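[SOLVED] Need 3D model of a three-part complex

Original post:
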Amino acid sequence: MSILHLVNKSPYENSNLNSAAAIMKSDDTLLLIEDGVYAAVKSGTASAKIAGHKVSVLGPDLAARGISEDKLVDGVAVIDYAGFVDLVETNDKVQSWL
Amino acid sequence: MSDTKKFLFINRKAPYGTIYAWESLEVVLISAAFEQDVSLAFMDDGVYQLLKGQDTSGIGMKNFSPTYSALGDYEITKIYVEKESLEERGLTLDDLQHLVWEDEDEDYAEKDSIRLVSRAELGDVMAEQDVLFNF
Amino acid sequence: MKLTIQVNEGPYQHQSADTAYHFAKAALEKGHEIFRIFFYHDGVNNGTRLTTPPQDDRNIVARWTELAQAHDIDMVVCVAAAQRRGIVDEGEAERNGKDATNIAPGFRISGLGQLVEGGIQSDRLIVFGD
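Solution:
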């Protein structure tokens, strides 16, 4: 029973990412959306928190914030809203870390 | 039963600073009428919602904390509180309201609704649910 | 999949209303069914017809109305949250002695039970908020 975890806040703003990362299981996927995408930037200290997890990031939110894909941590999948819908379908339920 | 789902209402925010704690409780109360398998989880700042002794007279807001003690009457008997969240905040179970429910199968014996769980155990609880509510 | 979407924040203040909209649109384009979109907390403010956003930016309320009408989606604004925040339809105006209504087309005001029912009847509940 895998969970799709949504984090929409910057890891430098609040600890939602910490909470998600601490409870995620190996089958789960973390999807970074809105301000949450900053966590996937390689050069940021928060990128260490997503290591070892299955991570996707919403491409339109990266582009809006001027983050190019080459700045991201290796292994992060960049998806669009259609990909977001697919993740909802392939996981059993969604946990929004608000 | 195909129609009964496991609902988990997750509370991660402190009360009064924002309305989420109160308005999420309103959903929990309504959910009782739908006869689903309802549980509550309090983690991160959500544990503050259960602190005893809330007095809102100085801030002019309605004190809704007595509502938690009614949850037992709404047949909500599984209230998970995350250990690590309490510890980080220097709290113990004694700081929280003592929430109970009456087991009609055991002569209405009073039982504790609060289940202190570790983060990992809460992760297991979440994995078992059908629907996760967040506010 | 049959989906219920919950929107917890109002238009413009947070990106949640936008993300929810783009998600809903993508889901429909993929042939999924949206059982209900439920607006709670400040999300009820997505349901006022009185917004006048700048011409060069998206019109969030109108976008919801268009989506609902094009796909026959049930968009529900929570009555308790709406009463607190002043989103009013004819019935609420009469019941509560208000001299105006402001609900946008495509939205209806109803109880929290609609959210719970959404959770029961849908395959997935997705919450967009702060």
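Edit: The longest strand of chain A covers residues 3-7.
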